[in-house]
Amino acid sequence: MLGRNRVWDKNKIESTLWPVDHEIISGLPLGNAVGGDKWAWYFDSKGIYKVRSGYRAIMDSQWSESSSSDSPDALWWRKLWRLPIPLKARLFVWRAFHEILPTMVSLRSRGIECDVVCPRCQAVLESPSHAIFDCPFSYMVWKKSRFWKVLENKRAMPFADFLRSLSLEISLDDLALVCWLAWKLWCERNKVVHRGEAGDPQTIFDLSIASFGEWQALNRSPSQPSAVGSNVWSLPQPGCFKLNIDASVIPGSDHIGIGAVIRDEKGSILGAMARSVGGSFSPFVAECLALREGLRFAKEIECVDIEVETDSINVVSTVEDNRELSLEGPILEDVKQLFAQVRSTGIHHIRRSANLVANLLARFGFNSNCINVWVNEIPSVVSNAVAIDIID
Ligand SMILES: [Zn+2]
């Protein structure tokens, strides 16, 4: 299936395989290293099977089967599963969503003899939304949070409607905190019901916020650092060069664009490159390809001591990982070798606004059917952006 220069032989793929496989095969990036076939677990970023990721894949497939992929519920479940909170808290949210929390109303409906009124306020029936939001004991805690304005009009809604609606209005991190607080309030409710211990709203709120921060600090994956990086492009260190790279991807297209630019300590361009690469790649794989092609270009024009910048934070965090079995593994292996060959001083994340020249080159490359290279000259397509970078 491989043609010359280690690219997929499009004609052979189309004449041998089913149409459904054409796009999948042409989206598999190829590295330089030649080796035998290996088994890899598709659902893990490193291609390694773990029971946890197997369980998650099954749950994801069950949820996506139970609701169409575009429905608000499907969107909600995708968000829930990725929330940075403990599994226990996610299961609590899942139970509340399906109205199967053991509230008094729920226990009675399962045939258990009990009083259905709220055991704390003794005022109304205890449903999940009452226990978590509307009961004065919970209400006082929510009132102290910055979400109060958003929650105030929704607190009487059934829990599922409340979450569906909320997930469209607030960020994922905020949704995680709302779910965390809801879970903590359910734990507080249980303390009152089972042990007769009622906490003070301010203390409950303060401890919940503090424990959320602690859990986040301990469990946030180092491969998902928060988005940081400069807003404006800066000159490389004296005696070094800076390589900026970017990729241009349009979903459904059969190719991507790649842009790379290398500048010296004065901001002058040593070289720039813009090209298209055939294949239907994800944005992440496209950024990995841009990194490899940018480093290859630097090597070809014999530029060393290079600092690399990209606006893809995922690329920065995966370069150092061992991802031999992942989809992008072959490219990252090439990247590691190229890093050594150009004596790279490291790769850093910058915001898109600081990567404008590479971004324009990638877009130019997307619309071009040849490899465009400029050495010691400014490509006219980026002349304004280059000037702005130096002024800033
Ligand atoms: Zn109550």
From TrEMBL:
<dbReference type="Pfam" id="PF13966">
    <property type="entry name" value="zf-RVT"/>
</dbReference>
<dbReference type="InterPro" id="IPR052929">
    <property type="entry name" value="RNase_H-like_EbsB-rel"/>
</dbReference>
<dbReference type="InterPro" id="IPR026960">
    <property type="entry name" value="RVT-Znf"/>
</dbReference>
<dbReference type="GO" id="GO:0003676">
    <property type="term" value="F:nucleic acid binding"/>
</dbReference>
<dbReference type="GO" id="GO:0004523">
    <property type="term" value="F:RNA-DNA hybrid ribonuclease activity"/>
</dbReference>
<dbReference type="InterPro" id="IPR044730">
    <property type="entry name" value="RNase_H-like_dom_plant"/>
</dbReference>
<protein>
    <submittedName>
        <fullName>Uncharacterized protein</fullName>
    </submittedName>
</protein>
<dbReference type="Pfam" id="PF13456">
    <property type="entry name" value="RVT_3"/>
</dbReference>
<feature type="domain" description="RNase H type-1">
    <location>
        <begin position="244"/>
        <end position="364"/>
    </location>
</feature>
<dbReference type="InterPro" id="IPR036397">
    <property type="entry name" value="RNaseH_sf"/>
</dbReference>
<dbReference type="InterPro" id="IPR012337">
    <property type="entry name" value="RNaseH-like_sf"/>
</dbReference>
<feature type="domain" description="Reverse transcriptase zinc-binding">
    <location>
        <begin position="61"/>
        <end position="142"/>
    </location>
</feature>
<dbReference type="InterPro" id="IPR002156">
    <property type="entry name" value="RNaseH_domain"/>
</dbReference>
